[in-house]
Known about the structure:
Blueprint: E1 8-11, E2 22-25, E3 30-33, E4 38-41, E5 60-76, E6 79-93, H1 100-105, E7 121-131, E8 134-144, E9 154-164, E10 170-178, E11 185-190, E12 211-217, E13 220-226, E14 232-239, E15 247-255, E16 258-263, E17 271-277, E18 285-287, H2 294-303, E19 305-309, E20 313-317, E21 324-330, E22 339-340, E23 348-349, E24 356-357, E25 367-373, E26 378-382, H3 386-389, E27 398-402, E28 408-414, E29 417-420, E30 426-431, E31 434-438, H4 442-469, H5 471-493, E32 495-500, H6 505-519, E33 524-527, H7 532-538, H8 540-553, E34 557-562, H9 564-576, H10 589-602, E35 610-615, E36 633-636, H11 640-648, H12 657-677, E37 692-695
Parallel strand pairs: 2-5, 32-33, 32-34, 34-35, 35-36
Antiparallel strand pairs: 1-12, 3-9, 4-8, 5-6, 6-9, 7-8, 7-10, 10-11, 12-13, 13-16, 14-15, 14-17, 16-37, 17-18, 19-20, 20-24, 21-22, 21-23, 21-25, 25-26, 27-28, 28-29, 30-31
Helix pairs in contact: 6-12, 7-8, 8-10, 9-10, 11-12
Amino acid sequence: MPVPWFLLSFALGPSPVVLSLERLVGPQDAAHCSPGLSCHLWGGDMLCLPGNIVSAPGPVLVPTRLQTELVLRCYQETDCDLCVRVAVHLAVRGHWEEPEDEEQFGRAADPDLEEPKNASLQAQVVLSFQAYPTARCVLLEVQVPAALVQPGQSVGSVVFDCFEAAVGAEVRIWSYTQPRYEKELNFTQQLPDCRGLEVQDSIQSCWALPSLSVSADGEDVHLVLDVSEGQRFGLSLYWNQVQGPTKPWWHRNLTGPQTITLNHTDLVPCLCIQVWPLEPDSVRTSICPFTNDSHAHRNLWRVARLQLLPPRGWRLNAPCSLPAEATLCWQAPGGGPCQSLVPPLPRENVTVNKALEFPLLKGHPNLCVQQVSSGEKLQMQECLWSDSLGPLKDDKLLVETRGPQDNRSLCALEPSGCAPLLSTASTLWDDDLGALWACPMDKYIHQRWALVWLACLLFAAVLFILLLLKKDHVKGWLRFLKEDVRSGGAARGRAALLLYSADDAGFERLVGTLASALCQLPLRVVVDLWSRRELSAQGSLAWFHAQRLQTLQEGGMVVLLFSPGAVALCHEWLQDGTSAPGAHRPHDAFSASLSCVLPDFLQGRAPGRYIGAYFDSLLCPDAVPTLFRAVPVLALPSQLPDFLRTLQGPGATRPGWLRDRVEQVSRALQPALDSCLRPPGTQETGFEMGPEAGDRT
């Protein structure tokens, strides 16, 4: 589809805001100072040794402020370098010390004693300059006449022409006196690149800047660099971070001309482009064209991911900074909006890619995190504990609030608000360990159930009237309802035991996501990930025996989830007949279950009781051992309809049911599956992108 907002065109050349610079002819350095002062530049550079701070013997000159100006040092009309002119503002610090004899006996009569107070001041001012790969130190000698020596007053400035620097470089300047009476001044400045200079025709390093245009072709975005044929240049795409250093994304040395292809979903506000000729000390020019683009901001929210950090930490992974706030809410099963907690927990400003802490004692599947943008718009909501603690529970959240004089009240969080429970309760005992409450529940129960009983009576009356008026139609409807209830009851009661090999944490999260999604079908899902306490108490083998027996007695299915680790275990058992002790995790039910699963397959008892599955992005179909192909082995999510149909059993699905469930499970699996496919280098940020480069034809 067309993407008109990508149709950009710009050149890495002049910028709308440019600087017109003064030209200095010749390579000689020079110094000049304010009227009334005299100054001298010592020839040659010196060694920068600030030394320690010493006490001033009387009034002294010290630097108070640094000021810079950009100029051009030109050797020919079209051969100039960028140069930094530095002005050092000076002031008088300190006073003449009064002799003790004068304080006791009056001022001295000898006029020679007053000469120092009328003398001029002289200072040696050091300027230190650093700009990779250049470092220089120069010495300026300044003399101030006695008429201008007023303690605490500014006396003027001395100007140095000039320090040469590369276009776009970062320069650091220090200034102090010898000897040093105060802490040295320092100043840092980022010099403009060629786009910010009006005289780029005079700077040879700016001549080779390529032009860049951005165009769209369906879902692809093309970065076209107009570079002369055969010219070699470097191109870097990076994420410009407000918080912390920039994050490189893609870098390559190319030969012009070139076209770089990106997917339009890869563009985010902080994506910047840097280009430079592959020459010594070449100028690097950067541009960030998508900073204010609304589509790029929407892409940023799409690639952002919330990550749970045990035990109570979390992190928002995103390539760019996000102006967002985070808050906790309570998600009840069955849909509906996530309810804000009462009393509300304070919202917290989010710093991306930084670990944050929840104000909780423990997690719960129904607790979710909401990300709200600066415009109070809900951008993201994830229930981070649902994968590790199971699906949403039908729990009621009770909220205790404490008022003045330690008054306490208890209410139940409901869609309509927080229903009070203890309005007439009395406290029998209360200390730091707990409390005893005596509360009448009849009023609360009556309020909750009166309308329910009234609705039931009304429904019974309507049903009785229908029976009298249309017996035949009602009989047919009841027959259909009976069959439908039987079908639904069978589906709800069927069990599924998931067996998998815990290859890594990402695969465990993927299995937990699959189990949570199957619980919504509904199925009764059993997985060792949710039964770690029972596994520790009973042992892996005993736990599997009990769960397998119960699942098969109820007419359920045992699901073998194949992964690279599971296939390796199966080959090990098929070759040696046993597994090396201590080779697997103590909670790994898959390795313990093979001693019972393999006999079922070898003796032909597996069909109708087992089903195999694997994630087609993580395992090749041919990798599944031949022995297990006696039962259906299905790929997920490509064969998800057949997988769900087999789990539900024959006659358990109705028209349209399967399509909705497939979409629901597939949508839940995709983020976890993407996380498993992510290369190790991108685990920290939680997103992956990758451009492809090709020669322009």
